[in-house]
Design a protein that fits this description.
With about 800 residues, this protein is an alpha/beta fold. The protein folds into two domains: about 375 residues, Glycogen Phosphorylase B (Rossmann fold, 3-Layer(aba) Sandwich); about 325 residues, Rossmann fold, CATH 3.40.50. About 50% of the residues lie in helices and about 15% in strands. It has 34 helices and 25 strands. About 50% of the residues are buried. Bound molecules: ligand 26Q. The site of ligand 26Q has 22 residues, from helix 6. This is Alpha-1,4 glucan phosphorylase.
Length: about 800
């Protein structure tokens, strides 16, 4: 009986109806006639799960039998997006489910809209993790994604008088049909206290006597591969108070205090930190990091591996991939487990640890490199701090052997920084401990080697490698752009979805006028669909005759939303001043989507300015409706899936040398938008692939940025030198967008004139010139469509399947398990 196979419901409309009704009755506890839409959505999700269950259980069993090597992806963020359509597609159930629900008198589209996306990430890094686990499942590679089940994901953004106001994201409120809690597999995670040494039959050993602990309860989510029957696991941890924790206080008779203690423990997985580039060094954040990493490592060793597993062979069974520095505390944690708990010697444990970790860096901004004050780390994780100190001592000894007693070099390379306070440099720890270190685009990896981690690259040249990011074509083409997907399938057959280089086949069709017409019709239809969505959502209209010029990404000064604003204000200034006839302006709709970290004042002011410019430009009759600014609040994966397929122009305008890769840029190119962009991140590779004729390049190169910086950059010189720029900045300063109140946007303008860390003014002229080339190119719709097709045809490289192949070949060495 124990071996009885799990039986899937029959793959037929009747089978689906039966299973759906069963779930509605027995899981939701309602009859069809009494059910509301949310009951129906939950029963539908349950039904899809039921179809995937047999394979999920089988795949886990098979991996254990075959003793395969597993990729344990450690990430504090997974920006998953909605699950229903993805899982229906993977399981080939979309049509069956649609018909089955129709038989029950339900329109599946009404249920789709009820799903609140799990927004368990900030932006690129979290979405990348979601794309990677999709690709690994599709490629049948054993993978567990480990992370945190935040009760509140990324905040819901609203605008009040044009300013960002954050609301909590209560994504679990209406139930969470996609995950399975496993309280029996909980891990106890400890914090605080002290360490002591003791004699263990003649050898001195250390033990940690912690002060308090919480339970980490895993919630498993299915990660189905596309049409291959494979189902991998995403295991997210939730913090729950331990009984012991409660009891200690209960015994003292203080009930209120015991409840407070419970709240305290459960705070750990309460909320995602909404900063995406300037870590604040908050204690709770370190607690989150240790919480999920310790739970994950111990879960893998103690429950995934067989009980008697010889841990000296650990590197044969696992690679822990560190998604940025957020999980790097896992390095001393694995050392502690191997040494203190499993009785291994330091040198053996270190040799194993160095083979079990690899590190991906996602930034170039120095302020984004995570450091933890030694005080804080030592208070929370005293044993880990000791281990880090010893790793550092031995590492610095190695540096000395290699380079001599060069104090400057030793200070620069030390894992412990001294200024402005003693702190642990997590990127250095990861680099020393990892078998490999990678950047996320060619240029980024090069800059890592040459600048950010230069000394380390000199010491360990073979550690450094590049893996250019990618995106999953299942979600971002098949699901998000079904009309384009159909057109491609008709032209090339269905194989492209898992072999994206096949899009090359479209190159020839770019020459075919009939294909171009159909391609243009797809774009127009996607604009109409976006119009419907935005009208429903926010009551705004998208004019399908306009060029759709889109900039969607987190708001950060380095990404330079301000450059886009200056372009819009320049166009508006031309019309408002009478220098340009509205009739001579290319009709454009500018779409922004951007959340600002709640504590990032400048970013919030820029959001306010975008909204303010929009309300003036959109309502000025002199513009004759030829320019329109739309800024839908709460940009997220769900909205991205509607906006990106409708775009004509993709704005990728960061200062060269600042955007590690970008992944939105890839989504746009693959959906037939042309890019206006700097020579930064993966833009470099996009341009190389699609060709200069199909990409609008502007701005300084990274070396040019360096030169100008070294010379002493004075933004005011650019203001003086360019009348258009002067006009735009003066218009903002004049209060034209703030009802005459000159103080509102003064900090934004002064910042540009007197500081401008990201050289907006220096690139302004080049940007405006590039936008004029865009207008000229757009005037020839047929040529534009041809370029758009070539963008699609030549961007197959940016499939996350290719990224995964690169990780597997260069870093993981994990074959598929079929
Ligand atoms: C760290 C400590 C404390 C609080 C928050 C954080 C934190 C959280 C998220 C720091 C950074 C992030 C996210 C960074 C991110 O999304 N980086 C982007 O990663 C993409 C995938 O590689 C790249 O394409 C982008 O270029 C990069 O900006």
């Amino acid at each position: 009986l124990a071996l009885a196979p799990v039986v899937s419901p029959p793959s037929s409309v009747d089978g689906f109806v039966k299973q759906f009704l069963t779930n509605l009755n027995f899981d939701q506890g309602v009859s069809l006639s009494e059910s509301d839409a949310n009951d129906q959505y939950l029963a539908l999700a349950g039904t899809v799960r039921d179809y995937l269950m047999a394979r999920w259980l089988e795949d886990q069993a098979r991996q254990n039998e075959q003793q395969s090597k597993t990729v344990c992806y450690l990430s504090a963020e997974y920006l998953l997006g909605r699950q229903l359509d993805n899982n229906l597609l993977a399981a080939r159930l979309t049509d069956i489910a649609t018909d089955a629900l129709a038989q029950c008198g339900i329109d599946i589209n009404d249920l789709r809209e009820l799903e609140v996306e799990p927004g368990l990430g900030n932006g690129g890094l979290g979405r990348l993790a979601a794309c990677f686990i999709d690709s690994l499942a599709t490629m049948s590679v054993p993978n567990i994604g480990y992370g945190i089940r935040y009760e509140y994901g990324i905040f819901r953004q609203t605008f009040v008088d044009g300013e960002q106001v954050e609301q909590p994201d209560a994504w679990l409120r209406m139930g969470s049909p996609w995950d399975f809690p496993h309280p029996e597999a909980a891990q106890t995670i400890s914090f605080g206290g002290r360490t002591e040494t003791y004699d263990d039959n003649g050898t001195e050993r250390t033990r940690w006597i912690p002060d308090w602990s919480v339970l980490a309860v895993p919630y498993n989510m299915m990660v189905p591969g596309y049409h291959n029957g494979r189902v991998n696991t995403l295991r997210l941890w939730r913090a729950v108070a331990t009984n012991a924790f409660d009891l200690r206080i209960f015994n003292s008779g203080d009930y209120e205090e015991s409840v407070r203690a419970q709240t305290f423990a459960e705070n750990i997985s309460k909320v995602l930190y909404p900063e995406d580039s300037t870590p604040q060094g908050k204690e709770l954040r370190l607690q989150q990091q240790y919480f999920f990493v310790s739970a994950s490592i111990r879960d893998f060793i103690d429950t995934v591996l067989p009980a008697d597993y010889d841990l000296t062979k650990l590197p044969d069974r696992v690679i822990f991939q560190l998604n940025d520095t957020h999980p790097v505390i896992g390095v001393p944690e694995l050392m502690r487990v191997l040494i203190d708990e499993k009785g291994m010697e330091w040198d053996d444990a270190w040799a194993i640890t160095q083979q079990c970790f690899a590190y991906t860096c996602h930034t170039l901004l120095p302020e984004a490199l995570e450091v933890w004050p030694v005080d804080l780390l030592g208070r929370l994780l005293p044993r880990h701090l000791e281990i880090i100190y010893r790793i550092n001592e031995e590492f610095l000894e190695e540096v000395r052997e290699r380079f001599g007693d060069d104090m400057l070099r030793i200070r620069n390379m030390s894992i412990i920084g001294e200024h402005p306070y003693r702190s642990v440099r997590m990127a250095y720890l990861a680099t020393v401990a990892g078998a490999k270190v990678n950047g996320v685009a060619e240029l980024h990896s090069q800059l890592l080697r040459d600048k950010v981690l230069h000394d380390f690259a000199e010491m360990y040249p073979d550690k450094f490698t590049n893996v250019t990011n990618g995106i999953t074509p299942r979600r971002f083409i098949r699901l998000a752009n079904p009309s384009l997907a159909e057109l491609i399938t008709e032209a090339l057959g269905a194989g492209w979805t898992i072999d994206l280089e096949r899009l090359r086949g479209l190159e020839a069709l770019a020459e075919d006028p009939e294909f171009r017409e159909r391609f243009g019709a797809v774009k127009a239809a996607n604009k109409r669909r976006l119009n419907e969505v935005l009208f429903q959502r926010d009551g705004v209209h998208v004019d399908e005759t306009h060029m759709l010029d889109v900039m969607v990404k987190r708001l950060h000064e380095y990404k330079r939303q301000m450059l886009k604003v200056l372009h819009i204000v320049t166009l508006y200034d031309g019309i408002a001043s009478g220098r340009v006839a509205a009739a001579d302006v290319t009709p454009r709709t500018f779409i922004f989507g951007a959340k600002a970290a709640p504590g990032y004042a400048m970013a919030k002011r820029i959001i306010h300015l975008i909204n303010a410019v929009g309300s003036v430009v959109n309502n000025d009759p002199r513009v004759e409706g030829r320019l329109k600014v739309i800024f839908p609040p709460n940009y997220n994966v769900t909205l991205a899936e509607k906006v990106i397929p409708a775009a004509d122009l993709s704005e990728q305008i960061s200062l060269a040398g600042k955007e590690a890769s970008g992944t939105g840029n890839m989504k746009f190119a693959l959906n037939g938008a042309l890019t206006i962009g700097t020579d930064d991140g993966a833009n470099v590779e996009i341009r190389q692939l699609v060709g200069d004729d199909n990409f609008f390049l502007f701005g300084m190169t990274e070396p040019e940025v360096e030169v100008l910086w070294a010379q002493g950059y004075t933004p005011a010189d650019f203001y003086q030198a360019h009348a258009g720029l002067r006009g735009a900045l003066d218009l903002i300063s004049s209060g034209a967008f703030s009802e005459g109140d000159r103080s509102v946007f003064e900090p934004v303008v002064s910042n540009l004139l007197y500081d401008d860390r990201f050289m907006v003014l220096a690139d302004y002229a080049s940007y405006i010139a590039a936008q004029e080339r865009v207008d000229a190119a757009y005037a020839d719709q047929d040529a534009w469509t041809k370029s758009a097709i070539l963008n699609v045809a030549r961007s197959g490289f940016f499939s996350s399947d290719r990224s995964m192949r690169d990780y597997i070949d260069r870093i993981w060495h994990t074959p598929p398990v079929l």
